[in-house]
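We examine the record.

___
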Amino acid sequence: MSHLTAPQIAELRNELERQLVKLEKSMTVTDEALKPVELDQGAVGRVSRMDSLQNQEIARGLREGETVRLAPIQAALRRLTAGTYGICTACGGEVALGRLFVFPESGTCASCGV
């Protein structure tokens, strides 16, 4: 049984869903940036192609970060559905409301998590 009230849970769910939508939009943009760089000698010179490849490498780094960020948001939404949101996944204690408002994806209390 969660220590959170229904309005608190609703507010946190809305924030998690907002973050998920924002992240999914970002991932769509990143997917576009990760498409193979075409070699078009007429339109893209050597320097431009190097810039495109460098941008693609930056996009790969962004994708890694997005993937890392996605998993805890999805896990938090699953905990909400299961009714275990706000309960530390490590010790079973309560995750402080303040922690959840700052890190709504957090699955651990301050003592168990980072």
